[in-house]
Amino acid sequence: MSLEVLLEFDADPLAVDSLHLSPAHLATLNNQPDVLDCLLRTQDASAVANYQDHRGRTPLHAAAHMCHLDCCQVRAVCRCCCCCPARSLTRTLRTTE
pLDDT under 70 in the chain at which residues? Predict the structure, then answer.
């Protein structure tokens, strides 16, 4: 995957556009769980997972807002901090399906 090559050459996984959307936000908005998974395997996983856009939404908020459950499930197995808010939300989504 080209994203993996970019990350190997120190591309910034926290780079943002004019709306403060990070690559993780764009991956969730476009329902690309493989891209999100790749971004969450970086050293900056916690920062990637918790970065907020101009509306204060994290990538998980964006995925849930768009009903992109595949991206929410990627967050459930995220290797970032143990207090990751995605874990409790994904459990809730699974129990209500």
Answer: 1, 75-97
* Helical spans, DSSP H, in the chain: 2-8, 23-29, 33-39, 45-50, 59-65, 69-76, 85-96
Which DSSP symbol is given to 80?
Answer: S
Q: Residue 83: exposed, middle, or buried by beta-carbon count in 10 A (0-12, 13-18, 19+)?
A: exposed
State the pLDDT at residue 1: 60
Residues in the chain: 97
Encoded amino acid at 17, one letter: D
Q: What are phi and psi of 55, to 5 degrees?
A: -100, 0
* 8 A C-beta contact, residue 21 and residue 52: no
CA distance linking residue 59 with residue 90, whole number of Å: 13
User: Are 16 and 22 a contacting pair, CB within 8 Å?
Assistant: yes
Q: 91 Cβ partners below 8 Å, 6+ apart?
A: 76
Looking up tokens 């197995």 gives 77
